[in-house]
# Entry
Amino acid sequence: MAITSFLFVPPAFSSTPGIGTLLCQICLLHFSLSLSPSLSPSMAAWDLSVTVEDLGPDTPPVSLSVTSDLHVGGVILKLVEKTQIKRDWSDHALWWEQKQCWLLRTAWSLEKYGIHADARLHFMPQHKPLKLGLPNGITLRLHACYSSPVFQTVMHICRMLNIRHPEELSLLRPIEEKKKKKDKDSTEEIYDLTEVPLSSGTIHSFSTSRPCLYNGMPAHFADSPQMEAVYKMLSVTQPPPAPEVIAKQYRPASVVDKAHINGRWLDSSRCLMQQGIQENDRLWLRFKYFTFYDIEPKYDVVRLTQLYEQARWAILLEDIDCTEEEMMLFGALQYHISKVSQSEPQMLSSSAAMDDLESALQSLEVKMEGESSSASEMLVETLFICFRPKRLTLKGYKQYWFKFQDTSISYFKSKEESIGEPIQQINLKGCEVAPDVNMAAQKFLIRLLIPAPEGMNEVYLRCENEQQYAQWMAGCRLASKGKSLADNSYQSEIQSIHSFLAMQKTNSSSHGNAPANDESINTHSLVSPRYHKKYKAKQLTPRILDAYQNVAQLSLTDAVMRFIQVWQALPDFGLSYIVVRFKGSRKDEVLGIAPNRLIRIDLGVGDVVKTWRYNNMKQWNVNWDIRQMAIEFEGNVNIAFSCVTADCKIVHEFIGGYIFMSTRSREKSDVLNEELFHKLTGGHEAL
Amino acid sequence: MEDIDAMFSDLLGEMDLLTQSLGQETVPPEALPPTNQEVNYSIGFTDLNESLHELEDNDLDALMADLVADLNATEEKLAAEIKGLKTPSPTTSDLPPPPKGLSLHPPSPHPLPASPASSTSSSVSTPASSAASSLPPPPPQNAKPTKEEIEAQMKADKIKLALEKLKEAKVKKLVVKVLMNDGSSKTLMVDERQNVREVLDNLFEKTHCDCNVDWSLCETNPELQLDRTFEDHENLVEPLSAWMRDSENQVLFQERGEKYEVFKNPQNFYLWKKDKRALKDIKDKDKEILIQENFCGTSIIVPDLEGVLHLKEDGKKSWKQRLFQLRASGIYYVPKGKTKSSRDLVCFLQFDNVNVYYGKDFKTKYKAPTDFCFVLKHPQIQKESQYIKYLCCDDARTMNLWVTGIRIAKYGVSLYENYKTAEKKAAVNSVWMNRSTPSSSNPSTPSPTIKAKTPNQANGHAPKPQPTAPDSMDFGNFPPPPSADILPPPPPDPAFPPPPPSLPAKSSSRPVAPQHKLPANFPPPPMAMDNLPPPPLPPPIDDSPEAPPDFLPPPPPAAGFGMDQSLPPPPPDPEFLPPPPPEPVFTGAGAPPPPPPPPPPPPAQAAAVPRAPVRPSGSVRKVPPAPPKRTTPSLQVGGGGGGGDFMSELMVAMQKKRGDH
# Structure
């Protein structure tokens, strides 16, 4: 029997955030290392056959004559001499196929390892190319370590990609794509990072602290234009995918589907080779623990970009549920981000602070102009207005001479009378502005809901054409936020209204394959396929535009942050699902693992029936023999379950991992406490 | 009573006028504006005195203090300007006429505000200033400098001056009557840059309350039977401006436990589903963890609320049940026959344009199922309307859950920041014994409060015993006793800018000196009520004509009366501008006991401290309405709303710019 217990001595709360001081005692009760029984210490030589990978797959194994007390280093030395190839063998090591383990302790003798003549050994490099699917959907080829625990492998990869806090990410096996495609995707562009020199194993000096950058990127990316292109791919958000691409992707249809994905995570305490990952295999790199620590836009360009991409795909593929309004906001943010990232070369955090007199004075001038409302900052035109609109008709509209000044609209009988008192003046500050546009019917209405003590007054303004509409609409939008036409965002507001109108024009015809440039983003690219069915692209446009007006002023970094924040604020955010069978229960249920709690979901009802928080957790145990987890909470609450859709190591690692994440704090050193991670997440091989 | 309002608005209008006329640099610096001003004021004040008798004493005091603070500031500005104009003349005798732009506006084109003489019950009475239609033009480009340095200096000064005027001219001020718990009221002036936190601090000073975090400003709407607490970061003037002229709405100052309950007992909101007994026993560290999780992460987490509420149907008196859900993005409900999954939810309302209010006694008014109702409406809606959403909960706890949840969703992290500030404030107050200097982030830490603790002034607004008349008389006596002895720096020699290095020292010494010395050795002020104030030249002219950054140049007001033309120009020293953090400046420095000394002054009494949020000046004059006890001058930190605004940014920029030279 093998049981690992993870015991919380009631945490003495320290002032640091998170779970507090965590004392974890691990009792190992297992008998796994069964040493080979009574091996006779005969020093007789015997033949050991070793396959040398570098000689090619067809070459027969090299046979070496060894004695049992020869240490592994000696075997390698003999082997290298025998192959007579001169090269750098320093990365090579022996892999014992039957036992699925590396012989990395070169000082250990064959006897100590328990190797006999029947052992099939492979001599191969520890670092091999791996195809890595990034959160942004792009595949990267790079050298990964196949011999160290996945946790370390991920650390290496993240350091290479310049992602801080690698403990939040991990690797998982991709979902098999359906093979009915016409091999079109085989030409998929793969970015190659295999040239990056391997940073020789100073893993322990890996620090989460801020990397130094050259030209705004890590040194190894500054070497060549190709490398710079890779860095750009990593650090700049991808344009919105074509709707077909979204539709083609696998989408989990239920909680159980989502639970299956979590069965694919690799074991962090074992190496890639041990988990059957071969050279050039494909793996996904994803954020696994949804506690994003210490995000610092200045240093986390790649991390933020990839996080955004993962969030975006989670939304588009309905991996996480949201409401329609939220979907429109996500759509608007995506639109804005893609627009801004095309105009900004690099992801720079633009600070709004004015640090110069000139710029300050300049904006003062604008301000003053706005207030003194010079004639140029005024709109005057003939428009139609309607106060008691009957839907769908253009009746009830009357024509007046309109003047837009500051944040108010006033109207007169005619242009001639505009010197005198207006018939009415409407202050738009605080009002709601909504478009009512139909390009095909040339209908350009602006719907205004103007707050007054008695309630909201509904007023429609009808414009004659697109140009007029864009100007007045932009004016209304700004005025509703208390800004005048003199505000420097006025022109860009007009621009975005134009481009949304353009979207409405082109959408119906466009076929989303063309890479989305600014003018022709298909709004179906911004929302999940559910809304492709529900709305036509041109119906979506005004709704996204509506949400867009609240985010249009954000800088790129702010917009990305906002996207991530809105994602984090969704009720289901951060939940990883596993189908489990609770002890004593006859049906499958779902366990949701969140950064701060576990939840139990009844599959029949689809409802959360119970919540347990980690800070009430006293200990958890894993019985590796019957693959069962037992958790004890304060107040004598005990739960136990076996895992159905994932190995219990995965569940154990999730819980231990979140406990680990909560122990991070600024006061502690910058260095990642790898040992603690393994203590909390390791299986019975741990320690 | 109406004429009081009218008077006030007139008065304020005058000040505005003054401000504006100051904006014209072409105004002959000689005696003209000052004389005007004096005439106006003395008239104004005599009249005022009579009608003001009817006001409550303390109200009057407070208000007057505010007004005078304003006046003083204006005068100082004037003085500064005169200096600014004068000084160049010695050096650049051939100074060309001021740039054209400046002379465009004739002085005082300012229309007096129409003074909507609102009924006395309305607390918001006067929008004091009108939109400044005639802003001073941008800083003049000075021509023909004789010395480069001086030119640069002058230019910068003018820019600064222009900006200040600009700022002043535009600031909207309201006179607000705040009702206390005990039925009394306080009247104070609030300008549009002040947020609720600052107003609360101001009230703390005036009431000597214990400053705990529950103290709130609330607005009530009797017509709709609504009330809500203002959030501390909210601007006060804006929502008040939405009130109608004849509104019966009121502003209350009271303790509202629910305001920050979520930070005191987060478990009741974030773990509301758990049983109550478990929640009661929750450990402090678990509370702390909850706050960390929900308010300190990258994103603010809204409590996960879901439940059946009663919704009043539009235009009807019937209430319908629906299953509502609160999300960060708004309130949703589950349509009939649909599941609770997010994608099926229908958006009931988003929070961008609405505030949440508690409804009072809706059972009677709207036949609500219970009295635990809350309301969502646009702040500008003041009467019944179909655009108001009425919701009714089964019990008080649910109602508080929802209202708090909505506030978290609407205000996000500001709420937590407000709480932390309020907590700090409360903590400081309980320990302040030795601390009379306010930290720069906390405007106006009350120094008078120190006394509040000692006597039995629990929630101190005991009506003041002194007669009103003396007070106003006092007021009339502009010039406070010559305070030569308190102002350490000797009068500077007129023609020269003070040596820069002396400045920092000075500014720091000023706050201290008057505070301790003044009250003790002051002779009662001369009773010069009807006369023009004698220019108290000598003492006030200390050589720090430059103001701390955000304020008006505080050359002693006396200088403003135009007698002295030889004031030193603003120091050309580039360093002279301290960085924006407002410096404490004294108001009410003089606080002499009024001539007819009233009964032994109860120490804590003079709650009402003159408040000139944005431009406290170091003037002795400010004191006027000081009741006898106000011997401790109040330490006032200005910079109210001005702190992080555009103007101060500009100041910083300017400073930097100059540093570069």
User: Anything to note?
Assistant: The two ends of chain A are 18 Å apart (CA to CA). The longest strand of chain A covers residues 443-452. Chain A touches chain B through 57 residues (CB under 8 Å). Chain A has a mean pLDDT of 80.
